[in-house]
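pasting for ref
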Amino acid sequence: MQNTILQVNDVSLNYYDKNFETKALQSISFNVLEGEFVSIVGPSGCGKSSLLSIIAGLLTECSGEVLVTDNMAVGYMLQKDYLFEWRTIWQNTLLGLEIQNILTEEKKDYVTNLLKKYGLYEFKDHKPSQLSGGMRQRAALIRTLAIEPKILLLDEPFSALDYQNRLAVSDEIASIIKTERKTAILVTHDIAEAVSLSDRVIVLSKRPAVVKSIHETKFSQENLTAIEKRETAEFRKYFNNIWKELEQNVL
C-alpha cells in the first residue's frame, strides 16, 4: 500500500497591487502518494506554477497548508535547464550539493553513478553548449537528483524543446524518475503529455483556480512507454475528457 507523501490542504493565494486584489488559487486540496507521477493542467494563467512554488516553499504568502512527510527534500526542475556555460557538465551536476554545503565524496560517487547510468559520463567534461537539448535536460535532472529528493517538482521542463524532441525527452525523463523511484508533480499545458506520463491528472479551473477534477489514468497493457500510451484507446478517452473540461473553462 502506498503512503501519502504530500498533502495540500485548502491552499488559497491572492495577489495584491496598489489598486487590485487578484484571486489566483482558491481552496486547493489534494494528496500525492509515494512513487506517484501526478500532473497538473489548467488554463493559462490559472496559477499552476504558483502552486508548485507554494509546494516548494518558495511562495509563502498564502493560506492553507502543505504537509510533506518527514520534511523530505524537494527537488525543483524549471522550464529551462539553467546549466551554466562556464561550468562543465560534471560541475553543473554538483551545483546543488555545493549550494547546500553537502558535497561529500559519497555524494560525488552517487552523481558519477547517475552520469554513467544515464549515458552522460563520457560527456562530463563537456560544456552545456556541446550537448543536445535532451542531454542537457538529463544533466539538469541529474543535478536535481544529486540532492536525493523524495519529491520532484517539474515546471514545464520540456516546453523549450521542439515537438519531436519533446516526446522523446519527456519519455526518457519519466523513465528515469520511475527507475529512481521518485515521486513527481508535473505542471504542463500539454494534455497529451499529462495523460501519457501520469498516474493521475489534476485539472484546475480558470482563475481563481479550484480543483475541477482528478483523473486516474489506467492502461490495460502494463509497462507501456509514454509514447506507446498515446496509441491506445484509453489515452484518447482520457485526453478527450480533459480537453472538454478545459475547453469549458475558456469559453
